[in-house]
Amino acid sequence: MFLRKIEINGFKSFANRTEILINSGVTGVVGPNGSGKSNIADAIRWVLGEQSSKNLRGIKMEDVIFNGTQNKAKKAFCEVALYFDNEDRRIPYDYSEIVIARKMYRSGESEYFLNGASVRLKDILDIIRDTGIGKEGYSIVGQGRIDEILASKPTARRKVFEEAAGIMKFRTRKEEAEHKLEKTDENLVRVEDILEELQ
Ligand code: ATP
């Protein structure tokens, strides 16, 4: 599995539809200060469900939509699509290519797509869990993140290794199952109360 292409339209400094093709090996992005290099990493993080505008270096989420310049009008929406080569089926979804996309309007309304079909963010998070490509995954290492990992508590640091080892999905499923059990317990208590009232 590898990221083959990024398509950015109306996101931050990318006013027009822009395609970034990524070949195998190491790819470097070079450009003057303020030319939009970090905006590419922000775009990737945003598609993968980033909900915090602060993490995207903005104040409000709307700040990710191209805000216009002297010569160009601002955009009404932005969209970003990540094209993953999935020949090795590392992403557990039976397609050779996986396209994860997100679109957002100035109203704040946001839509997610998986190979063109409208899905919930949860569906996307479910299929990328344990692949390392989640916004919290080890594939995006932002400035200061290494220091943050080194300085974090052992339990927080362990999560990075759990993601890399591919056991996060089991932890999440366990938490979901525990939550369901709690709900079932609550329902049982309610049923017992009703039974008692009826007797
Ligand atoms: P450096 O090398 O200094 O880290 P960089 O190449 O990583 O710079 P970015 O931080 O990616 O640059 O891009 C900053 C640019 O993006 C600024 O010029 C800023 O005006 C522009 N920008 C950010 N948000 C928007 C937006 N919503 N609309 C238009 N331009 C934006």
From TrEMBL:
Annotated residues that bind ATP are located at P32, N33, G34, S35, G36, K37, S38, N39
Ranges that cross the membrane: none
Q: This protein's superkingdom?
A: Bacteria
Its subcellular locations are:
Cytoplasm
Subunit-structure text: Homodimer.
Concerning its family, UniProt says: Belongs to the SMC family.
Q: Supply the domain comment.
A: Contains large globular domains required for ATP hydrolysis at each terminus and a third globular domain forming a flexible hinge near the middle of the molecule. These domains are separated by coiled-coil structures.
- Function summary: Required for chromosome condensation and partitioning.
Protein name per Swiss-Prot or TrEMBL: Chromosome partition protein Smc
Source organism of the structure: Guopingia tenuis
Q: Which gene encodes it?
A: smc
Q: Which residues of the full protein are shown?
A: 1 to 199 of 1182
